[in-house]
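Review form for a predicted model. The reviewer records the input and the model, then writes brief findings.
Reviewer: anonymous (R2)
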Amino acid sequence: MLAAIILGAAIGYFHLETGQSLKPLGDAFVDVVKIITVPVIFLTIATGIAGMSDLQ
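Model under review:
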């Protein structure tokens, strides 16, 4: 992951046109992560509640 960050920064710094052309791909990735976050949290909580046994 660190290598990807360094590579992305290098492409953005040395090859500005390439970095700008890859912006839609990065924006789409961020949007997908935002969309997936809420269902993952909800399902994690629901699974935890469903797995609880009776507290008596």
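Findings: Residues 38 and 45 are 11 Å apart (CA to CA).
Further findings: The longest helix spans residues 23-50.
Recommendation: see findings above.
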